[in-house]
Each structure stands twice: as structure tokens, then as C-alpha cells.
Design a protein that fits this description.
heterodimer, A: about 325 residues, alpha/beta, TIM Barrel, 8-stranded parallel beta sheet, about 10% strand, B: about 500 residues, Aldehyde Dehydrogenase, Chain A, domain 1, Aldehyde Dehydrogenase, Chain A, domain 2, 2 domains, 20 strands, about 40% helix, about 15% strand
Chain lengths: ~325, ~500
């Protein structure tokens, strides 16, 4: 990290919220991968992970039919076994009403919509806010916004924070997830600072989220850890409990369990719940289901026994 | 220093937010199941053969995790030590004249054979020593192999150990090693001694002889010529016989400062060379601009690694006053998530204390800390009923005159002190009889450079702790001993330069 390349405002914020040592973080998270999760603990972890999935499709080629099939998969991830529904489906704003029709009311599966000119965020603020309001009106329970990385990197931190505040207001009753797009922030120091920018204006029950899934590097145990620690510090200082959503790049059940171990050892019991922790993923769900079926039956089933309804990031 | 407990907010009377590390997701037991292939009885290893002790006496060795007997170990008396030295003396001419590349081949073979049997040795190390299996699996055994590989590479390059001078092996070396890292300490001793062309008589620690004597199987398998390495097991008396033997050209000892001083006295006036790696009371300095979460991780790694049975453990934490409360709060939250218990469980972070005697010593020193007015913090973890266990412990309100701030505890016990200025930190850090290691945590490179020059310690770690490498010399100042192990410096202590 080249410290001098940081704008003065960002350096001041880092001084205030504390810095992060890259080697130390990566050493810490490597230890999560050495935990050995067996038997009932494994089943609990896998089931909990299923219940935390935001089952996602975010593609130009999405259709109402694709979204309907995604919703069916979300409610009932597998036709045998006792597998819980996922937390939410995550779609583009234009697909929210199709998701609402497919899920109906009272399915227990929430509808999340990316908004604010996802994934770049490069649209005028009033356009982004209008998009948020439209998605909420169409039935979105949760909004996944992207922060203004251009403003962040230029040191206009006040602007970044004001925009998040404006989106909070536009969300109304809907929960908000603030995507930091960690791969564009470059250093752990900046990820921690950006986490605080968001945490200081979001509400209890809102989330911070790693990435859009549209860039090269997405959720890693390292940036997950830095954001969990920011959530913890903010909670201990203010009492406001924010949630966390790593997104993109988590494809296997084994990875998901490692992320959950990080949650267990950093934030404790209260965050082992889909009101405070989510996985933004699609391919992950079938691997979780496959591992659960293996625990139930004692044998791995071929991939074609598991319905493909969610091939996206 | 202010009271470190989770303080209620000064502005309101509502309870301060706190995290709960409870039983929402308890882990099932995850025992390592590899067979340690223990024999019921281990004989001495002299002249390439397992040999019964001349006295016919054996002693029991136990598993400190459940106090159950593991095996009987032959007790070496003066006559056995004599036989071992005679074998080493006979083996010396041929071994020292062997081309370096040939000696290197043996060392490479030994390293590879250990890697082949890594799980078996890791389990045996954990069974006999009490350390968590994840440490013997991920640290002790791989690091042991790494030391043999490293020194294998040196065997045919000895002319570069002291450029411009000729080097020759010393002869027969007597070595006595401690119980905290049985295999690794054996590698630190054997690697440079053998690479340089010496022959060896080595005594493992009384409580942890098994992996040393199992290692003799590897030496046999590697075809090491008889007498090049000899193992004599036993307690203090055997050690004294090894050290006092007239045939020894050099003594290398790792262990307590008390015994080290006795050895130093006993060797006065003899021709024997000596290296001592003794105790420590390392200062781990946390400056106000340190990355705090990583520093806390380093504190945990510094003091709870191997149950704190580490001579370079960061047992004195010196925190700058402005961040002291914050660091202590984070530290207490972190130790609440440490898993204490069965060393053979892959999820165990802190295993068993090595022996009843050591547990007693730790307990007594902790009691003295409480008596002298320090505040003790321990997490509420459940300890197994049988076996030797001690909760990870953190003392705050410690002053420099407390016993827990001056004496080596050699257990999972951290003493926290504070400082205001960097000069005060240096003064406190150096105000100790020891000088083995130190740690510095800061965001500023200039502070690292300043402190690493001013701290009187053989190793200074910056923004990390307890990092080892075969190429990096390790050793102390003052009562922590003299001589270095590892790297070129370590080899110099096993050769005559002339």
C-alpha cells in the first residue's frame, strides 16, 4: 500500500478508525481454514449457511421465467431432505415484480434488489435514488446499493457518506446493504475506513457487503474479517448491530463454513443468523445442498440430481 | 491503569453492548486418528542400536492430557553415557572425513523420512508433550524437517561459513534439550552438529523422550553410520553425566537459566566449548499507532502458543497508555474464543501443560500475582477433569516489581504493563535479567528501526511474533544465554575456525 497516494481525508479517517496490517489479517484468517467441523456441527453449519444465502441472478439476459425458477429454488432448494429456504433472492429492479409474483406474500423468502446503477454506480444521484424508490415500490424488501468509489478514491468522503444517507432515506422500510466493492478500494485500511463511513449512517438491521461480483476479486476471508471487525467495533461503541454480506467467489460449502467460523469467532452467537449474516451467491447453494444430502445419506450424489436454477455469480 | 472490565457507558445507565461467544454453534470432537506407533518400552540408542540400560532401570512416561502411562523409557546411567561417548568418539574420524556432500545426503534422507511419517510423529509429539495437534502437525514436525533440509544444504558449503578461513568440526558434542519442543530442539541441535562433521550424544527431556527415541528409528532407516548420533534418556543426573563427560568437545544446552548457570560453572577451566539457550521474559510492545486487532492476534500467538511453554514467549505485554484499555478489552474478548482442552482434537488452541511439576509452578506464580495486587482475567472455559490444564490468563495492573513481571512463568500467563513514552518502553523492556526476544507493534517503520536497535534481545519481531526460520539465527543476551542456533551463525558454534 502506498500511503502517500491516499487523499488526506482518507488518511485522517484511517487515523481515526485505526489501521489494518495485511500480513496479520491474512495470518488470522488462515487459521479459520484449519478448523475441523464434523457431524452435527457440520450439518448445523451447512443448514445455517443455506438459510443465509441471497440467491442471486444479475445478468443482462435475465427473464421473468428465469427469475420464477430462481424463486422456486429459493423456497425449496431440494426436493428431498429437510432443507430450509434461503434468506432472499437478489435480482435487478426490473425483475422485482416478477419475483414478487413468483414468491407471493408470506413465503419467508425476501426479495433483494440491487439498485443505484449497479454495479458501477455511475449515474446521477437523483437517478440512483429514483431507482431505489422504484424497486421498493415494486416490492423489494431489501436494497443492495453500491457506494460511489470514484468519490471515495478522490477523497470526497463526505459525499460518499451523504449519498449513503440519502439511499437509507429512500429505502424507507426496506433494509439496506451497502456494497463497498472492496476490490476497487485496494487496501485493507481503505476497506475498514469505508466500512465505517457506511456503518455510521445505516440503521440496525442494515448490512455492509463486500462486492458486486462483477469485478475480478470478490469476497475473501481477509476482507470479510476486516469488515466483521469494523461491525464489531461500531457495535461495541454505539450498540447498533449491522449485518454483513460477503458476495461473489464463495462457491463451495467448505468456503462457506470457513466464513461462518470467522463470524463465530469475531462477532459471536448473535451474528450466526440470517438477520445479520448473508452469503451473496448462487453456485454455493447446490454445493451446500449436496453436502447436506451426503451427511443425510452417507454418499455423494451426482450433480445432475440437483436442480440448476441459479447459475450466475 | 483504569479497571479493564467492560465499562458501562458514562453517558447512560443502559448496559454496554457486549458480544456473546456461547454455544450457538458448538463443534463436535475432531480427533486426529493417525497411529503414533508407540512401543511399550524404549531403549537407549547407542552405536546405531537400541540398547538396554546397564542398570536395567526404566522410568514411565505419561500423556499429560490424561495422566495415562504411554511407555517405559530406559534410564541412562553414567556407564551408558560413557558407552555413548565411546561410540561417538569411534564414529568421529570417518564421519568428519566424509565429503560434505555425502553427509548432506544423510541429512536430506532424514528430513524426507520424517516428512513421510509426519502424521505419526505429530501424534506422538502431542501424546507425550500435551501440545495441540494442530501445532505439532503445522509447526513442530514441518519445522523439524525444514531444519534438516537447511543444514543438509550447508554440509558441502562449509568453506562459506567463515569466508577466507578454514573450518573443522569440533569432535564429539554433548547436547541436552528441553521438553517444550522435543523434536524441533533435537533438529536445532543435530542439524548443525552433523552438517559440520561432529558426532553427538544427546539427552532428551525426561518427560518427552518418546519422539526422540522414535527419531532413532529414522536414523536407522536412513543408514546413518553407527555412533554418529547417540540418545541417552533420563533426568538431571543423566544430563549432568552428559555435560561432565571428559570426552565432550562441546556442550550445547537449552533449558532453564538455573541449570545453565550450573553447567557454566562446571565447565569453567575445561577446554569444552559451550552454548546456552536459556530462559526469557520477553517484552511485547504495543505502540499507540499499532494495528490493534492484528496486535491482539500477535499477543495471543506470543503468549498462548504451545501453552506458553516457549522461552521466547511474549510474556510481558507493554502497552502505550492511550490504547491500553482498548487493547485489554480486545484481548479479553479474543481469549474468550480460545478452545482449551484435549490436545488431540484438531480444534484445540491450548492443550495440556507438560507436567504436574510445571502446572504447580504456574499455579504458584499466578497465586503470587494475585497476592501482590495484580488483577487476573481468565475466560470461563471448562477444563477436562483429568490431566494438567491451565486457563489462558491475563494479568492487568502489573508493576515492574511483581514476581509475575520478572520471573519466567513458562505457561499461558500474560502480564500487562503500560508506558507513556517510547523511552520509558525501552527502559522497562530492558529492565530484566533476560534478553532473548521482543516484539514491536506500530504502523511506523522508523519506530521499528529505532526500537529494534535499542531493545536488548536476540530476536526482535516487528508486527508479528514467534516466527522462526532455519536460516535465521536464534539466541539471547544476558541470562538468556549465548551462542546462536540456526543460520550461518549457528553453524559457527559447531566448527573450529582457523
Amino acid at each position: 500500500m502506498v500511503v502517500n497516494a491516499q487523499p488526506a481525508a482518507l488518511r485522517r479517517l484511517i487515523d481515526e478508525v485505526g489501521n489494518v496490517d495485511q500480513v496479520g489479517v491474512e495470518e488470522r484468517v488462515a487459521k479459520y481454514a484449519t478448523r475441523s467441523i464434523k457431524k452435527t456441527a457440520k450439518v448445523w453449519g451447512l443448514r445455517t449457511a443455506v438459510s443465509m444465502v441471497d440467491l442471486t441472478t444479475l445478468e443482462g439476459k435475465d427473464t421473468p421465467g428465469k427469475v420464477a425458477s430462481l424463486c422456486a429454488k429459493a423456497r425449496r432448494p431440494h426436493d428431498t431432505g429437510d432443507i430450509p429456504a434461503v434468506a432472499a433472492v437478489c435480482v435487478y429492479p426490473s425483475m422485482v415484480r416478477h419475483a414478487r409474483r413468483a414468491l407471493g406474500e408470506g413465503s419467508g423468502v425476501r426479495i433483494a434488489s440491487v439498485a443505484t446503477a449497479f454495479p458501477s454506480g455511475q449515474a446521477p444521484l437523483r437517478t440512483r435514488l429514483a431507482e431505489v424508490r422504484a424497486a421498493v415500490e415494486e416490492g423489494a424488501d431489501e436494497i443492495d446499493m453500491v457506494i460511489n468509489r470514484g468519490a471515495f478514491l478522490a477523497g470526497e468522503l463526505g459525499r460518499v457518506q451523504d449519498e449513503i444517507s440519502a439511499v437509507v432515506e429512500a429505502c424507507g422500510p426496506a433494509a439496506l446493504k451497502v456494497i463497498l466493492e472492496v476490490s476497487e478500494l485496494e487496501a485493507y485500511d481503505s476497506i475498514r475506513a469505508a466500512s465505517f463511513l457506511a456503518l455510521r449512517v445505516i440503521r440496525e438491521g442494515d448490512f455492509i457487503k463486500t462486492s458486486t461480483g462483477k469485478t475480478g476479486l470478490n469476497a475473501t476471508l481477509g476482507n470479510n474479517q476486516v469488515m466483521l471487525e469494523a461491525i464489531r467495533d461500531h457495535y461495541l461503541a454505539t450498540g447498533v448491530a449491522a449485518g454483513m454480506k460477503p458476495a461473489g467467489g464463495i462457491r463451495t460449502a467448505k468456503q462457506a463454513l470457513q466464513f461462518l467460523i470467522a463470524v463465530k469467532e469475531t462477532l459471536g452467537d448473535a451474528w450466526l443468523d440470517n438477520t445479520r449474516y448473508r452469503f451473496g451467491a448462487s453456485a454455493l447453494l447446490n454445493d451446500l445442498v449436496r453436502q447436506l444430502e451426503k451427511e443425510r445419506t452417507g454418499a455423494y450424489q451426482a450433480p445432475f440430481y440437483f436442480s440448476e436454477a441459479a447459475e450466475s455469480y | 491503569m483504569p479497571a479493564p472490565s467492560a465499562r458501562p457507558s458514562s453517558r447512560s445507565s443502559r448496559r454496554a453492548p457486549e458480544l456473546r461467544f456461547g454455544d450457538r454453534w458448538t463443534f463436535d470432537p475432531a480427533p486426529e486418528t493417525a497411529d503414533p506407533k508407540l512401543k511399550p518400552r524404549y531403549d537407549l540408542f547407542i552405536n546405531g542400536r537400541f540398547t538396554a540400560p546397564k542398570s536395567g532401570r526404566y522410568f514411565e512416561t505419561i500423556n499429560p492430557a490424561d495422566e495415562r502411562k504411554l511407555a517405559e523409557i530406559a534410564l541412562a546411567g553414567a556407564a551408558d553415557v560413557d558407552a555413548a561417548y565411546a561410540a561417538a568418539r569411534r564414529a568421529f574420524p570417518a564421519w568428519s572425513r566424509l565429503p560434505g556432500a555425502e553427509r548432506g545426503k544423510y541429512l536430506f534422507r532424514i528430513a524426507r523420512l520424517l516428512q513421510d511419517r509426519a502424521r505419526e510423529f505429530a501424534v506422538a509429539e502431542t501424546l507425550n508433550g500435551g501440545k495441540p495437534i494442530k501445532e505439532s502437525r503445522d509447526f513442530d514436525v514441518p519445522m523439524t524437517a525444514a531444519h534438516f533440509f537447511y543444514h543438509a544444504g550447508w554440509a558441502d558449503k562449509l568453506e562459506y561459513v567463515a569466508p577466507g578461513a578454514r573450518v573443522a568440526p569440533l569432535g564429539v558434542v554433548g547436547q541436552v534439550i528441553p521438553w517444550n519442543f522435543p523434536l524441533l530442539m533435537l533438529a536445532w541441535k543435530l542439524g548443525p552438529a552433523l552438517a559440520a562433521g561432529n558426532t553427538v550424544v544427546l539427552k532428551p527431556a525426561e518427560t518427552t523422550s518418546i519422539t526422540c527415541l522414535k527419531f532413532a528409528e529414522i536414523l536407522q532407516e536412513a543408514g546413518l553410520p553407527p555412533g554418529v548420533v547417540n540418545f541417552v534418556a533420563g533426568a538431571g543426573e543423566t544430563g549432568a553425566a552428559v555435560v561432565a563427560h571428559p570426552s565432550a568437545d562441546k556442550i550445547a544446552f537449552t533449558g532453564s537459566t538455573e541449570v545453565g548457570k550450573a553447567i557454566l560453572r562446571s565447565l569453567a577451566g575445561t577446554e569444552k566449548k559451550l552454548t546456552l539457550e536459556l530462559g526469557g521474559k520477553a517484552a511485547n510492545l504495543i505502540l499507540d499507532d499499532a494495528p490493534l486487532d492484528q496486535a491482539v492476534e500477535g499477543i495471543v500467538n506470543g503468549i498462548f502458543f504451545n501453552q506458553g511453554h516457549v522461552c521466547c514467549a511474549g510474556s510481558r505485554l507493554l502497552v502505550q497508555e492511550s490504547v491500553a484499555e482498548e487493547v485489554l478489552a480486545r484481548l479479553r474478548r479474543r481469549i474468550a474464543t480460545l478452545r482449551v482442552g484435549d490436545p488431540m482434537d484438531k480444534n484445540t488452541d491450548i492443550g495440556a501443560i507438560n507436567s504436574r511439576a510445571q502446572l504447580k509452578r504456574i499455579t504458584a506464580l499466578v497465586a503470587s500475582g494475585v497476592r501482590e495486587g495484580a488483577t487476573l482475567h481468565q475466560p470461563a472455559c471448562v477444563l477436562p477433569e483429568k490431566g494438567f490444564y491451565f486457563r489462558p490468563s491475563v494479568f492487568s495492573d502489573v508493576t515492574m516489581s511483581h514476581r509475575i513481571a520478572r520471573e519466567e512463568i513458562f505457561g499461558p500467563v500474560l502480564s500487562v504493563l503500560t508506558f507513556r513514552t517510547i523511552d520509558e518502553a525501552v527502559e522497562k523492556a530492558n529492565n530484566t535479567a533476560y534478553g532473548l526476544s521482543a516484539g514491536v507493534w506500530t504502523g511506523k517503520g522508523s519506530r521499528i528501526l529505532k526500537l529494534s536497535a535499542e531493545l536488548k534481545a536476540g530476536v526482535v519481531w516487528a508486527n508479528t511474533y514467534n516466527k522462526f526460520d532455519p536460516a535465521s539465527p536464534f539466541g539471547g543476551y544476558k541470562e538468556s544465554g549465548f551462542g546462536r542456533e540456526g543460520g550461518r551463525h549457528g553453524l559457527l558454534d559447531y566448527v573450529r575456525v582457523g
